[in-house]
């Protein structure tokens, strides 16, 4: 039924037909995600809600703004993307997130938490300014609802003098179970709601900010969902409404229902496991045994960062604050003022949210906080909004910050040992998976690089991080066969740079390789170091553009980060 | 009395003596701020509160965390900084903000809004982990209370299982009058509080998050303040408390009481007026007359950004969201999706809070939002936490973003006209004051630089922004007298760069000048552009360190950004 469905057809369907449509969507989503990877249980939980929304509202005239976007698959199936659905998250395929360029039914791109209410308010305000007439709906999960942006948006609802429908999809989880007082409050609301007077008493918080509160506490009941949305649609003409919907994460697929955390994000079989995060967890747990100052802070990703064991073993020295990256960074800085040794583990892309706090709270106070930056470099199938390719650029100019980039999981372990003794701000950046151990090092010294191959004097390849080092060493071995010998240098600290080594390379042709944007990264730092010299440097890094979804290796190859490209460049240079 | 006062002496004083102390503090603060510049009315409002806090609590054993820090002067006077007080905000003098390096009574550095609750929680949590016993107090103004960080911190209070005292100093203003629903709620609380049952009904929001709510609605009454704090001190052993204190901004100085917005920040007489902000206001108001798509968004600084007239003239097309920089950026992005033309005006240092939203919401969607970045470059007396020297570095690597830097107020006006027709993300960065108009330009073309002097072939100085252009042109004129002729080029677009002009300079010795960090700024971009060439470039920009307080010119001079330094460098090079 889904194949060529239009909004007009959907609106003519009987309940029975709509229920069959839900089952069909559920089946396609499960099958596709198990093949391509993606967000499974959150999407299964919101099938009925998405069908009801498309049944009641008139998209694309009405606007549906997702938060993060882990629940947009059914909406995609219902709005013209049935035939491309099996390309989801693949290179050149449709996105796993809402994307304006893909469809007029996706009105706002998302990926990071908490933006939907602000975006819906902006769209509604623009509608009013333009004198238009349509409904604006934000759909947010209870995990994102912890983010400070929600409060900022709530606080300005009356100020903006406009109306939106905010649907709070409450499944009790972000990736991990949702934490915090707001979520406890939501539980109270949904438990007491059958008793009218209690609802009136409890729903005050939302009313203070200008929302009328309503709830559907069986959000997987399509009939109830439709009838409530129809009722609310009328109200929206004069009033903003928050609709609290309880859904079951993983609904309809028993393995998911029973394992919502593992099935939040499904990895397809060609992707590797999380070896760097395993090392983080194991090493930090070991170090914390001896060093009672060590504390770990996460923002709703404890398990995927490898820290479950640490959290179990040291519950008093670990905090998951929910999706609150700014707050997490300040907690670390302030705990450090009292002599603790905080580790803030976070994905590279989400660390962007802590940018100001890294500058002001951590680095301007020169506090010994260690940032463990996971999923650095190209992160793959999630696309533009999740690539970890900006971190070297947004960290390299911050005074007092040391930036370390391990070349393999073994060096990462050594760096964590180094970090425990290091008494200043430190960032350690690493990709998701570790494929190779290049060597075992005895000791890490701050700002000291490692020469991996000797070379014959002409070329020096300076690279940082496993992927770049791998390109460099593969290029070295391909060129060795052709009689060209490269020095390959592991720039395991991007800051401070090893100026002694750099000075020893003055006579060489330097090539830099990194899994980061060219602007502001390792190559840029080296270019600037040598700016006052007559010196040729060739940089391999990502050009000034957003990087779409795709496999890590295929994207790196396409963007010019490969052994072959390095070899080609050097051979062309040799023959010039 | 204040001269050599200690905490022990303070605790022995009679109420009468304490009141005299308040008057003395008020007098010193007024006198000093009128001379040195600084935050006047917020500090006058919190004299009694500060005396009461120091009377009741035992600093530095107990910890007092300020929010932003616009209310720390009395605390400084009471804790050993009486004799240095007249150096406040001057180069080498004491800071206008709390500063750990300055005194053990300043336990946490601040400057940007909303951090105090998170920091107090981190300190309290560390205290618990370390098995220590002291009180932790956060002091926040109602303006900062709008920031999303507050919600993130509130949401984790129970989770962290620790106790703090949060004092909400409510004077109805941040710099501008406080906006938003939370503030309306605070008004209801303070109005109804005398009726016990109403308090119980209303204070629910704070109780939900784990705070007991209490209030002192005449926060300038020292006796009441002391007795309430003594009562609460007992409770803190088992409970977190939020104490809502109403104070009068500018208390005790009638001109301030009547003009709290103008007297929030006092500028000393040697500083110039805000000419760039005047141009912004005038030009945007004029452009908005014809172009109904233009909207303006600010985050609690409408007047100091020059936008008061715009807001008065176009109330439906202007929004001040309070101190919510993230939300402001998303509002702009989302309004742009509906065809509007949003201008987000903000200080450079506070734009750091919108970093992630600039990448994801504005630039990855390639939306025509214009960032008007005021107080760029060295901002002066506020010191480390307020310098605008990072913006080129944190913007230059963001794809899709065009970065413009006008060389004077006349060019700024032209750039705003240019921006109205420009259909992609645009950042325009400018300092507070405009001192000079170098020339009047007819037209601004995207990415096209301007040659200001011809030179004789050897040296090219590429500079951006009024201050750097001024150094460059002064150097040019000093060197002309010595027979050395420079080409001075106005890099009015830092991105995209004018590659045609750059290519024409291949044979020249290039010098770059900018009022920004070296790493990631204009100089770095040019170094990287020429990395594959045998070419010498000399960069004048700020080295990798935080920049303390001081006068703009004296700091620039000291940090190597002056005509003399450029002249010296070139003459040394000539004689080599």
Write structural notes for this entry.
The structure is a homodimer of 576-residue chains. Chain A has 25 helices and 19 strands. Chain A is an alpha/beta fold and 576 residues long. Chain A has 3 domains: 7-266, Thiamin diphosphate (ThDP)-binding fold, Pyr/PP domains (Rossmann fold), CATH 3.40.50; 275-429, Rossmann fold (3-Layer(aba) Sandwich), CATH 3.40.50; 450-574, Rossmann fold (3-Layer(aba) Sandwich), CATH 3.40.50.920. In chain A, the strands form 4 sheets. Chain A has a 7-stranded mixed beta sheet, with helices on both faces. In chain A, strand 18, helix 23 (522-529) and strand 19 form a beta-alpha-beta unit. In chain A, helix 14 (275-290) runs parallel beside helix 20. The longest helix of chain A has 22 residues, at 15-36. The radius of gyration of chain A is 26 Å and the shape is globular. The termini of chain A are far apart. At the A-B interface, helix 6, helix 7, helix 8, helix 9 and helix 11 of A face helix 6, helix 7, helix 8, helix 9 and helix 11 of B.
Rg from alpha-carbon coordinates of chain A? 26 Å
User: What is the CATH homology-level superfamily of the largest domain in chain A?
Assistant: Thiamin diphosphate (ThDP)-binding fold, Pyr/PP domains
Distance between the termini of chain A: 62 Å
Helix content of chain A: 40-55%
Output mean pLDDT of chain A. Answer: 93
Number of domains of chain A: 3
Quaternary structure type: homodimer
Return the CATH architecture of the largest domain in chain A: 3-Layer(aba) Sandwich
Strand element count of chain A: 19
Low-confidence stretches of chain A: none
Question: Helical element count of chain A?
Answer: 25
What structural category do the secondary elements of chain A indicate? alpha/beta
- CATH T-level fold name of the largest domain in chain A: Rossmann fold
Return the CATH class of the largest domain in chain A.
Answer: Alpha Beta
For the biggest β-sheet of chain A, the strand order reads: 9-8-10-11-13-12-17
């Amino acid at each position: 039924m889904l194949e060529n469905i239009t909004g007009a057809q959907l609106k003519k369907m009987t309940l029975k037909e709509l229920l069959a449509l839900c089952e069909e969507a559920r089946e396609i989503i499960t099958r596709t995600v198990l093949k391509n990877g993606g967000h499974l249980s959150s999407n299964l939980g919101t099938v009925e809600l998405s069908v009801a929304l498309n049944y009641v509202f008139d998209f694309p005239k009405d606007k549906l703004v997702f938060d993060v976007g882990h629940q947009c698959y059914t909406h995609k199936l219902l709005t013209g993307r049935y035939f491309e659905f099996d390309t989801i998250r693949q290179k050149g395929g449709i996105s796993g997130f809402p994307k304006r360029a893909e469809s007029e039914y996706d009105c706002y791109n998302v990926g990071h938490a908490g933006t939907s209410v602000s975006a819906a308010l902006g769209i509604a305000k623009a509608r009013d300014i333009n004198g238009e007439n349509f409904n604006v709906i934000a759909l947010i999960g209870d995990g994102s609802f912890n983010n400070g942006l929600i409060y900022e948006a709530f606080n300005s609802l009356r100020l903006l003098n406009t109306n939106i429908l905010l649907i709070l999809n409450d499944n009790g989880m972000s990736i991990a179970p949702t934490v915090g007082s707001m979520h406890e409050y939501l539980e109270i609301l949904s438990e007491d709601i059958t008793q009218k007077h209690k609802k009136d008493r409890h729903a005050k918080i939302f009313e203070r900010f200008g929302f009328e509160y309503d709830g559907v506490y069986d959000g997987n009941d399509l009939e109830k969902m439709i009838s409530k949305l129809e009722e609310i649609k009328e109200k929206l003409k004069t009033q903003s409404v928050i609709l609290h919907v309880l859904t079951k994460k993983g609904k309809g697929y028993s393995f998911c229902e029973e394992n919502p955390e593992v099935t939040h994000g499904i990895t397809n079989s060609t992707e590797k496991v999380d070896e760097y995060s395993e090392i983080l967890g194991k090493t930090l747990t070991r170090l914390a045994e001896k060093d009672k100052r060590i504390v770990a802070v996460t923002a709703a990703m404890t398990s995927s960062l490898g820290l479950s064991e640490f959290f179990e073993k040291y519950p008093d020295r670990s905090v998951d604050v929910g999706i609150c990256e700014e707050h997490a960074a300040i907690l670390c800085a302030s705990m450090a003022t009292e002599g603790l040794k905080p580790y803030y583990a976070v994905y590279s892309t989400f660390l962007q949210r802590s940018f100001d706090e890294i500058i002001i709270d951590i680095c301007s106070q020169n506090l010994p906080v260690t940032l463990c930056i996971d999923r650095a470099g190209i992160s793959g199938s999630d696309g533009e909004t999740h690539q970890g390719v900006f971190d070297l650029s947004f960290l390299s100019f911050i005074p007092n910050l040391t930036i370390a980039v391990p070349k393999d999981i073994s060096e990462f372990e050594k760096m964590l040992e180094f970090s425990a003794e290091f008494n200043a701000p430190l960032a350690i950046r690493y990709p998701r998976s570790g494929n190779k151990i290049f060597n075992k090092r005895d000791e890490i010294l701050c700002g000291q690089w490692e020469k991996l191959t000797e070379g014959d004097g002409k070329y020096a390849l300076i690279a940082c991080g496993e992927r770049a080092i791998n390109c460099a060493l593969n290029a070295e071995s391909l060129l060795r066969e052709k009689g060209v010998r490269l020095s390959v240098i592991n720039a395991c600290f991007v800051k401070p740079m090893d100026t002694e080594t750099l000075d020893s390379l003055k006579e060489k042709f330097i090539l830099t390789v990194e899994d980061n944007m060219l602007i502001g990264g390792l190559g840029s730092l080296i270019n600037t170091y040598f700016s006052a010299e007559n010196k040729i440097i060739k940089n391999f890094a990502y050009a000034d553009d957003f990087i779409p979804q795709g496999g890590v290796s295929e994207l790196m190859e396409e963007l010019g980060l490969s052994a072959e490209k390095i070899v080609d460049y050097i051979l062309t240079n040799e023959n010039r």
